[in-house]
Specification:
With about 240 residues, this protein is mainly alpha-helical. Among the domains are: about 65-130; about 140-230, Tetratricopeptide repeat domain (Serine Threonine Protein Phosphatase 5, Tetratricopeptide repeat, Alpha Horseshoe), CATH 1.25.40. About 70% of the residues lie in helices and about 0% in strands. It contains 13 helices and no strands. Helix 5 packs parallel to helix 7 (about 110-130), helix 6 runs antiparallel to helix 7 (about 110-130) and helix 9 (about 155-170) packs antiparallel against helix 10. The chain is rod-shaped, with a radius of gyration of 44 Å. About 20% of the residues are buried.
């Protein structure tokens, strides 16, 4: 490489021009101009006018001062109390009282509290428009409620509902059958056997239902359960 560069310097014409292009160094004036262009590129667009910056500064500092004024305003403090009262009623699902308090919040001077109150006011109106769920009254309604609670694993609620249903209809085999299933799920073997036996006496078809009912899996090892479901057999299933 070095001999070739030496020969190039000694030659004339195109070789010397080629080496000059390769080994070119900018002058001081060119470097100064290039530096100015780079500085302009870094700065980006022209700076904003001074009056624009002043307006922005005023807008930035006006927010906190406005909030401080609102907090010292007795009307805002009263509006805040009404809003907190409405939220307590809302959390307790007392939507009628919450709605009354929220409507008073709308008359206050704080726009932020007004916006919040409007959101919760719409929720209260939707909740109040739904018809209330009526409490179970008939044996059928208590029975369905008890089965629903059983499916959710709420054993005590299920038992209360089924016992209410049985008081109304003491000879309803399907209610007694459901009690037998609940007893089995909660490990009450003796009560489960008694309820299931009574349900079969009232309606023999319950014997066939119990054979494929998974709720009675806890009783499968009890020979009395096998004898009750398969009376034609002398002993437990092999």
């Amino acid at each position: 490489m070095f001999p070739q560069m030496k020969r190039g310097k000694m030659a004339r014409g195109g070789r010397v021009d080629s080496l000059r292009r390769v080994c070119y160094y900018p002058t001081r004036n060119e470097m100064t101009k290039a530096g100015k262009r780079r500085s302009a590129a870094v700065r980006g667009p022209a700076s904003l006018p001074l009056n624009t910056l002043k307006r922005k500064g005023v807008a930035a500092t006006s927010g906190p001062s406005r909030r401080e004024k609102e907090m010292t305003d007795p009307r805002v403090r009263e509006q805040q109390k009404l809003y907190e009262e409405a939220m307590r009623h809302f959390q307790e699902q007392k939507f009628h009282k919450a709605k009354q308090a929220l409507e008073k919040v709308l008359d206050g001077p704080s726009r932020e509290l007004v916006d919040r109150a409007q959101v919760h006011l719409r929720i209260c109106e939707r909740r109040m428009s739904k018809p209330p769920e009526s409490a179970p009254r008939t044996a059928e309604e208590h029975y369905h409620h008890g089965v629903a609670m059983m499916n959710l694993g709420r054993w005590e609620d299920s038992r209360q509902a089924l016992e209410r249903a049985r008081k109304i209809a003491p000879k309803a085999d399907y209610i007694i059958y459901a009690l037998a299933a609940l007893d089995s799920l909660t490990g009450e073997v003796e009560s489960a056997m008694a309820h299931l036996k009574l349900a079969i006496e009232l309606r023999p078809e319950n014997r066939y239902h119990a054979r494929n009912d998974e709720d009675f899996a806890y009783l499968l090892e009890d020979p009395r359960f096998t004898e009750l479901l398969y009376p034609e057999r002398d002993g437990p299933l092999s």
